[in-house]
Design goal:
The complex is a heterodimer. Chain A is an alpha+beta fold. Chain A is 13% helix and 29% strand. Chain A is built from eight helices and 23 strands. A seven-stranded antiparallel sheet of chain A has the order 10-9-8-7-11-12-13. A four-stranded antiparallel sheet of chain A has the order 3-4-5-6. A four-stranded antiparallel sheet of chain A has the order 14-16-17-18, with no helix packed on it. In chain A, a hairpin with a 5-residue loop joins strand 1 (3-7) and strand 2 (13-17). Chain B is an alpha+beta fold. Chain B has one domain. Chain B is built from two helices and seven strands, in the order βββββααββ. Chain B has a four-stranded antiparallel sheet with strand order 3-4-5-7. Chain B has a three-stranded mixed sheet with strand order 2-1-6, with helices on one face. In chain B, strand 3 and strand 4 (42-47) form a beta hairpin. Classes of the chains: A alpha+beta, B alpha+beta. Chain A binds chain B through residues 1, 3, 5, 10-15, 17, 19-20, 35-36, 45-47, 49, 79-81, 99-100, 102-105, 133-135, 139-141, and chain B through 2-3, 26-27, 29-33, 35-38, 46, 48, 51-54, 71-72, 75-76, 79-80, 83, 86-87, 89-91.
Chain lengths: 399, 112
């Protein structure tokens, strides 16, 4: 039994097994101790005890390597845990983390330096990182490592940053690459679409955000709309083709909910007035692109009509998994069951058209408009692909 | 020869509570950690032949109400106590030491 010891910036000391080491990789900001000969370029989910550090003493990689092997020699013959401390042997290094990295233990995120909360919450971080936290708001003490390229994990300099995890944005302070303070940013939205502003025979253009699927049979029975003709367009991909745009707001529009409302199939008796509203957060509020934008839904927006007071959640597979098999309040087909439900748009793998990205059959139609938060301007209606994550992609206005 | 850390269910000093509920073999041990996911934190070990995902040994930690409100503190306390047991074992001529969790933490379900 031969162990060394290493203490990270969270103050936690870990033993390092010195008995079955196969390979040691040293860089300017990390030491990787490998216990097998496989995957020697990979760190995540490998037998790789990864030690990441800030090189505060500015010593060279060869010096780090030399000091490490000297420590290893001593640790293998030492009977004192104190003498087997890597920190003591390498005082020029501030060790931020030590241990295996498993993919189930962290989330991917992005970060960007920010001087204060306002700047952080308005920023669009692009530098990739990993956050050692699996759910919710990362607690104080959470490790954050930059991940500039595959298998490269580096400490982040002390300072304040914007941190983006999925659809949530935070203002954080880092010391020793660990969160010492974190503030949740309010959700920043670019567009809000309220279907309750539609009326039979009278479309509200700016709110004409409507959903469809690539399968033209799915919406036929919605709200008892048996008499409706199929949405016209190219056979087989009726909701994907450019001709579908010209059918919006017309008598054959069976997109949900707007097509049903303007054609008189979805009235107050069936939920109009309390229908859920949708909102979109652009990838960049100053760039007019739906690609990478995130879709949200609110079941209480209709109460005040104020998006800052409404509760917004991502319209994604998690929304469905939470039990929203349909679209929200006021959307249950009176006869029982709605086809399609959220699962058809977001989850269904059987009608997936892009298995590599788990892209389901969902499509959304977005109206022209100007961002609330930025200066992005969309001049025309577009159709956009909806993915499981709630992200939008592959937008087109067919021009 | 392998050496073992025996895991006692309760903290030292808890009356009539000397009960070993699991062990950690050190020969193949590569890493361990306390994962803070959900309301019940879990202690996991990672071995040479079982090192990814949920770990080899999975021990649910039962926290006092005070520590339940500060799981980060509970994690650090638990790992601080464990590494002391580790250090004790490394300089001991015996093959086992008993690890007692800190006060406020007891060992719940042990699986692996």
């Amino acid at each position: 039994m031969n162990f060394g010891y290493v203490k990270d910036t969270a103050g936690i000391t870990k033993p390092i097994n010195l008995d079955d080491i196969k390979i040691i990789n040293v860089t300017g900001d990390s030491i990787t101790i490998r216990y097998n000969l496989n995957g020697t370029t990979n760190i995540v989910d490998e037998l790789a005890f990864f030690i990441s550090f800030n090189n505060t003493g500015g010593i060279s990689t060869s010096q780090i390597e030399s000091q490490f092997y000297k420590w290893l020699e001593n640790a293998l013959i030492s009977t004192s845990p104190l003498k087997a401390s890597l920190n003591s042997a390498m005082p020029q290094l501030e060790i931020v983390t030590a241990g295996l990295i498993n993919a189930v233990g962290y989330r991917d995120a992005t970060f960007l330096a920010a001087v204060d909360e306002n700047a952080a919450c308005a920023a669009s971080p692009t530098a990739t990182c990993i956050v050692e936290s699996e759910v919710g708001v990362p607690p104080v003490g959470t490790l954050v490592l930059a991940n500039p390229s595959t298998n490269d994990y580096e400490p982040i300099a002390d300072g304040t940053y914007a941190l983006n995890i999925l659809t949530s944005k935070y203002f954080i302070s880092l010391i020793g690459s660990r969160i010492v303070q974190i503030t949740v940013c309010p959700l920043s939205l670019d567009f809000v679409f309220d279907p309750n502003q539609q009326a039979s025979g009278t479309p509200s253009d700016s709110n004409y955000f409507s959903l469809a699927t690539t399968n033209n049979g799915f919406f036929l029975n919605y709200y008892g709309a048996f008499a409706m003709s199929p949405f016209t367009g190219d056979a087989g991909d009726v909701f994907m083709g450019c001709t579908s745009l010209s059918s919006l707001k017309g008598s054959n529009d069976r997109t949900w909910p707007c097509g049903y409302i303007v054609n008189g199939f979805l009235d107050a008796a069936k939920g109009l007035g309390q229908l859920p509203a949708f909102a979109i957060q652009l990838a960049d509020p100053n760039v007019a692109s739906w690609n990478g934008a995130k879709l949200f839904v609110s079941d209480d927006y209709y109460v005040t009509g104020d998006y800052t007071q409404a509760t917004w959640v991502s319209f994604n597979e998690d929304y469905w998994l939470q039990g929203f098999s349909n679209f929200g309040n006021g959307t249950q087909f009176p006869a029982g069951g709605i086809t399609p439900g959220v699962s058809s748009l977001i989850i269904s793998a059987s009608i997936a058209s892009d298995s590599s990205t788990l892209q389901p059959a969902g499509r959304v139609f977005t109206p022209a408009g100007t961002s609330i938060s930025g200066n992005a301007v969309f001049g025309a209606t577009q159709y956009v692909t909806l993915t499981k994550t709630g992200d939008l992609k592959s937008s087109s206005n067919c021009t | 020869m392998n050496k073992y850390i025996l895991i006692n269910q309760e903290a030292k000093g808890v009356l009539n509570a000397d009960k070993v509920v699991g062990l950690i073999g050190t020969h193949d041990l590569i890493d361990y950690d306390v994962e803070l996911v959900g309301s019940i934190p879990s202690f996991r070990t990672y071995l040479l032949d079982d090192f990814s995902g949920t770990g080899a040994l999975n021990v649910n930690l039962v926290l006092s109400s005070e520590l339940a409100n500060d799981q980060g503190k509970a994690k650090k306390l638990f790992l601080d106590y464990l590494v002391k047991a580790f250090e004790e074992l490394s300089i001991s001529s015996t093959s086992t030491v008993t690890f007692y969790p800190p006060k406020g933490i007891s060992i719940g379900t042990v699986s692996g």
